[in-house]
Structures are given as C-alpha cells and as structure tokens.
Design goal:
alpha/beta, Rossmann fold, five-stranded parallel beta sheet, five-stranded mixed beta sheet, elongated, disordered C terminus
Length: 720
C-alpha cells in the first residue's frame, strides 16, 4: 500500500480513457516514439522505459465512479488519485461526483479535467471548499503535465498516508504512555494511602498495646501495694493474688501475640507436623472457653458433620491457638444466643484432605467494610470495639497466617446484626490407614484426661460399665457434663435433644435388638417434654428404668415424676455421685426382678368434671413440717377460684391462661395433682381457643376442686 499507484479515470468519452492509458503506460507514449526516431537517425539503441507503472481503472459516469471507489475501499486497495471530467451527461457532473466521493473518501487526490469554463475557480471552491487535494487540468492535455501530475499526486497520497499512520502510531504511543503514567500515579497514590493507613494502624496498635499493658499493670501494681500492707485480711490477700495472676496471664498472652506476629512478619514462624487427635484439641478448646460462654448465658456446643479421622498430622498447639481465638471472639461479640463449633472432614478420598471447623455465633455480625479489613494486623472491626471489648487486633491476623502455615486458611460469612460464621480449614496429612470415628462426639468427651478418672467411675468399676444409656437433654452444656460422668462410669451414651428424639431412639434400639439399659431424661425440653416422653414409652411397654432430671426441687416433684412413669428423679444442679447411685440402684433392681417387673405407669386423669366425693388429701399430709404451708395454700384456693371466674367474666383470656398456669404449678408443688391436672386441661382449652361452653365447663371443674380443697383440705391434713 505504500507504493499505491492506482488511478481512477472518470470521463464519458472513451477516447479520453485511451489517451490517458497511452500517456501513463509504461511504454512512455510520445516520448517512446521520439526515442525510436532518434535511434533510426543516429544509429543509437532506444532507451529503456523507466517511468512508473500505474494501475488505471475507468468509469464513464459519476455514479459508476462512486461504486468503484467503494469497492476499492472494501477490498483494502483504495485509489491514490483520480482524473475526473467536468461534463458527463446525463448523470452527475464532475463537481458533484467529487463532492460525493470526498464525503466517503476525503484522502483521494483529484484532478479536474475540462475544456470549457463551466465553473469558475470560485464556483469550484464554493462547491468543494478549499483543498490541497484538488487541481485543474485544461484540455487538450500536455502529456508531460499528465505524467507529472500522476507521479506527484500518487506520491503525495503515499506521503499523507504514511504521515497519518505515523500520527496514529504516535497518538497510540502517547495514549499508552499516558495510561502507564496514570496507572503509575494511581499505584503511587494507593501506596501512599496504604502507607498512611499502615502508619495510622500502627499508631492505633501502639495506643491499644499501651492501653492493654497499662490496664493490667495498674491492677498488678495496685494489688501488689495492698499485699505489702500488713493490715490486709487473709481473704483480701487471696483476692489480690488472684487478680495479679489473672492480669499476668493477660500480659503473657499479649506478649505471645506480639512475638508470634514478629515471627510471622520475619518468616521465622515454624509449625510442627506430628500425630494428634482433633477430638482432644476440640475438648481442650471447649474446656478453656466454655466457662466464658456460661458466664454470659450463652449456649455452647461442639458438633460434628459426619465422621472424622482419629488422628491427623498437624500442629496441635497452633490448631488449639487458632480455635481458642475464633471461639473466644465468638463468645466476646455475642451478647445473647449461642456459639457452636462444627467439625467435618472434606475430601476424604482426595490427595489433600482437610478438616473444616465452622465457628458459628448469633452475635453482632460484621458489615462488608469491616469484613474486608478484619484480617489485617493491628485492625479491629471499629474503634469502639477496642474500648468496649479490649484487644489489640492481632488475634485474627495471626490465626489466618497460622492456618495458611497448616495448609489451610480462614474465611468468614457475616452480616451486621445477623451473626458470623468463621470457617477454618487445615490439612490433615495422608489418611491411609488412619481409623475413622463414626461417633466423634464421644471421642471429644473422652479426650478429657481419662487417666484422672476416679477408680469408682472407670470402666469396669460401676454397674453402668459397658451398658447403653440414653441421655435426653436439650442443653449442650448439660449434655457435655452429664454424658462425661456417665461415660467415666463406663456407660455407652447416646444423646437426644428433646423428648421426641428420645422416644424414637428408644424404640429404634428395641427394634434393632440393642436396647438401652437406662434412660436419663430432662423434664423441660422442646418438641416433647420429659413427662410426655416417659408416658409414651410406658404406653409402648418400655420397662427399663427412666430417671428424671429437673430444676424443680419441691417435695411434690418426685411424686409428679413417678406418676408420669419415671422410676426416680434427681434435681439440678446435678449431684453426679447421686445420679450414678440412683441409676445403678434402679438398674440393679430391674435386673433382679427381670421381665416380670411392673414398669411404672402414668397416673390416670380424673374421669369427669365434678368435684371428688372424697376429701382432697394432699400427698404431703403425713409430713408435719408441711402442715403450715399446706394450711396457707388451702386458704388461698377459694380466692384463686374467684380470680379465675372474674377473668372469665371479663373475657381476659391471657390473664386466665396465666392464672391457670400458676395454679397448675403450685397445685403439683403442694401435693394436689387432681387440681393441677384440671388446671392444665383448662389452660389447654384457653390457649386452644375452645368455645365458651367447653371453657366454662373446664373452669367450673377447677373452681369446684379448689373449693373442695378449701373445705376439706385442712381437715384432711389434720386427719393425716
């Protein structure tokens, strides 16, 4: 394209086309004839033609010329110059043709060919504008002039094309360089902001560290001064020593964090690869953090998602450090609700299996901006966090780097106000030949120092040794503690979180011919409470001992449990020695009596809504110590009946339900189960939106029983 010599000839006269071809052909036209004549006269050989070779294309009308130009552009072979006649009837004349061509291809060099003065030069300029790409050639043509115009215009087109290409190239170079400079400036700006942010973060870190050091040091120095005072009482000295110990441990943790960060930043922090038990690590984490959760009233639990390896090759110290930090943060930032740790195995059959630990909380959560910078050193969620909760903002940064060193990482999912889930993954090392635990929860509980168990609680030293026990308890902390003591006594413990799960587990075990030897069941549970679960089991013919756990310690509660089908009960907080003794006694009794033993049955409900013909005798009527309390309660029964009737008359169903609920509990506590059962039925009618007639009938029965108790209760007590 740099040597483009394509010329478009536009004229309605074919003879003109022939003339142009003779003039611009490589033979040289007239010049060649003169050279031949000179050679004939003087005997010299004709000189070889040395002119340029042009590619000529002809068009006879303006429309045809425009189409040829368009085709050349599509093919990428544009014309460099054009010789265009002015008069070309009946279509466009030359001026209009040039104007139309230049609209689509303004680079074309044009020569106007004319024998008449159809247009003055001013007319041409008005029609086409001033342009250095336009010349006029008068007919008849001078051959040399035509050749020179062709040579000059094609060279000019070539020069302009090269200039445009160079200009475009320079523009692209300038754009690229400008973009590079802008990107460099942006990077410098980012680096400056990052440096400023890092400087601010380190300044904030130093301020935090100063606060974290000065606060415990103030306590240490203050209590040390008190210890130097000989007048301080022994109890006060003990408190001072505990405070000093607690604050020293805090300082030690701070120092360890700073040293860990220093090692990480210098690339000198190493990790071990030794065989260790993930269950034991989790048990130790739970042991060190559970008290904090309980003190805040949080539910704390450790659960498993499928089976996990008994051992892995990792660094148990660093794994424990990461988990303690994650769990500690979850507890710290959760004002109410729960904290749960879920452990599972990923990629068991892959070449690089990993353990996953999800630490879930129902706490304050994080917004996206806080999440984005949470793992940076010296950074906490916000400034108020430091003041409210303390800390230097090093824990998560260290934990993330440790997790990466253990062939894993830490990620999180959170939303402000909706809690947070931190996910820790670590490599397990090869698992070929490693035993897999189908019940990791049991291994977690048994991981807590079995060598330290009392002899009477070790396997083989108790009637529970090797026996299957079902523990139905909805509280994770109580599940942990109670199952721990049962397992220490040698029992094989299965857990249920509500009464329905307990019933299903017992019946499934019987169908599989792997029955439980004992059921320990909490009274207050979701879905189905202990009373309902025990009654269902007895209806199914389940004769194995069932021991109730209840936070109620009234003397009537034992009788309530027995009526519901329990063999015995223990109060909370649980005396574990007593629980084991009660369990062992009933198991031994059941084994002695064998299958002929009668299982406790749930007490019958009073069959009608009339007051009993016999006096309502309290179950505690034979206990002299209860006489005053019973007399007080019996005197209150008529007033309770009046309050119930008044609430019913006012149609205050919420108040009615509240009064019946109170009566249900108090009647059982004072040994009047018939009144309690009637109150329960009436409360169910209220909450179930029973019609007025049914509700009135239920309340009439309650009122009648209350009055019967009032008329006969004291006499019955005295008679007892």
């Amino acid at each position: 394209m740099n040597d483009n010599r394509r010329i478009l000839l536009v004229d309605d006269n074919e003879a003109i086309h022939a003339d142009f071809r003779k003039i611009l052909s490589s033979s040289g036209g007239e010049t060649s004839k003169l050279d031949a004549a000179r050679a004939a006269l003087f005997g010299a050989a004709p000189a070889a033609a040395t002119g340029p070779c042009y590619e000529l294309t002809s068009a006879h009308q303006g429309q045809e010329a425009l189409e040829l130009m368009r085709g050349a552009l599509r093919e990428g072979r544009p014309f460099a110059a054009a010789f265009i006649d002015v008069r070309m009837p009946p279509g466009w004349d030359g001026i209009e043709t040039i104007g139309r061509i230049w609209k689509e291809y303004p680079e074309l060099q044009v020569v106007i060919c004319t024998a008449y003065s159809d247009y003055s030069w001013d007319d041409v300029q008005r029609a086409l504008g001033e342009s250095d790409r336009l010349l006029i050639l008068k007919k008849p043509f001078d051959n040399v002039e035509v050749r020179q115009l062709a040579l000059a215009l094609t060279a000019k087109w070539r020069t302009e094309r090269e200039a445009r290409l160079k200009h475009d190239e320079l523009e692209h170079m300038v754009e690229d360089r400008t973009r590079e400079l802008r990107e460099a400036a942006d990077k410098l700006d980012e680096a400056r902001h990052a440096a400023e942010e890092a400087n601010r973060a380190k300044s904030a870190f130093l301020a935090n560290v100063s606060h974290e050091i000065r606060t415990p040091m103030t306590a240490i120095l203050g209590h040390a001064d008190l210890l130097l005072d000989s007048r301080q009482a022994e109890a006060e000295r003990a408190l001072s020593l505990k405070s000093i110990q607690r604050n020293c441990l805090h300082l030690l943790q701070l120092i360890n964090d700073i040293l860990d960060l220093s090692k990480i930043e210098s690339g000198k922090l190493g990790v071990e690869r030794i065989e260790c038990s993930p269950c034991q690590v989790l048990a130790e984490v739970a042991s060190s953090t559970r008290v904090q959760a309980i003190e805040k009233g949080l539910d704390f639990s450790i659960n498993y998602d499928g089976r996990i390896p008994r051992t892995i090759r990792s660094d148990p110290t660093r794994l424990r450090q990461i988990l303690v930090n994650l769990v500690g943060n979850a507890i710290k930032f959760t004002p109410r609700g729960s904290v749960e740790v879920v452990c599972g195995l990923e990629g068991e059959d892959d070449s690089a299996p990993a353990l996953r630990f999800d630490v879930r909380d129902t706490g304050v959560g994080l917004n996206p901006a806080q999440t984005a910078r949470l793992f940076q050193p010296f950074v906490q969620a916000d400034a108020s966090t430091t003041r409210t909760h303390g800390g230097t903002g090093l824990g998560l940064s260290i934990s993330k780097r440790l997790a990466e060193a253990l062939d894993g990482g830490i990620s999180l999912v959170s939303a402000s106000g909706a809690g947070t889930t931190f996910t820790l993954r670590i490599g397990t090392g090869p698992l070929e030949g490693v035993a897999m635990l189908d019940d990791p929860h049991e291994a977690t509980i048994l991981a807590t120092s079995p060598a330290a168990l009392p002899p009477e609680h070790r396997a083989g030293g108790s009637p529970l040794s090797g026996r299957r026990v079902l523990l139905a308890e909805d509280g994770p902390d109580n599940q942990y503690l109670i199952s721990l003591h049962l397992r220490r006594a040698g029992a094989e413990v299965t857990l249920a979180s509500n009464g329905r799960e307990a019933v299903d587990a017992v019946l499934a075990a019987q169908r599989e011919n792997r029955p439980f030897a004992l059921v320990v069941m909490d009274i207050q549970m979701p879905v189905l409470d202990g009373f309902g679960a025990a009654a269902l089991l007895r209806e199914e013919g389940f004769k194995v001992p069932i021991v109730a756990l209840t936070a109620n310690a009234m003397q009537g509660d034992r009788q309530k449990c027995l009526r519901a089908g329990f063999d015995d009960y223990c109060t909370k907080p649980v005396d574990f020695e007593q629980l084991l003794q009660v369990a062992a006694a009933h198991m031994q009794k059941h084994e002695r009596e064998g299958s002929t033993a009668e299982a406790p049955t749930a007490g019958a409900v009073f069959p009608d809504n009339m007051a009993p013909a016999e006096p309502l005798r309290s179950e505690f009527a034979d206990e002299p110590d209860m006489a005053d309390a019973l007399a007080y309660y019996v005197d209150r029964l008529p007033r309770i009946a009046e309050e119930l009737q008044a609430a019913f008359a006012r149609d205050e169903r919420d108040e009615l339900a509240r009064l019946l609920h109170q009566l249900k509990g108090s009647a059982g506590s004072y040994g009047f189960p018939t009144i309690g059962e009637a109150a329960r039925a009436a409360e169910a009618a209220v909450r179930g939106a029973a019609d007025e007639a049914a509700l009135s009938q239920a309340l009439d029965r309650v009122a009648a029983l209350c009055r019967a108790g009032a008329r006969r209760g004291v006499d019955a007590i005295a008679a007892g």
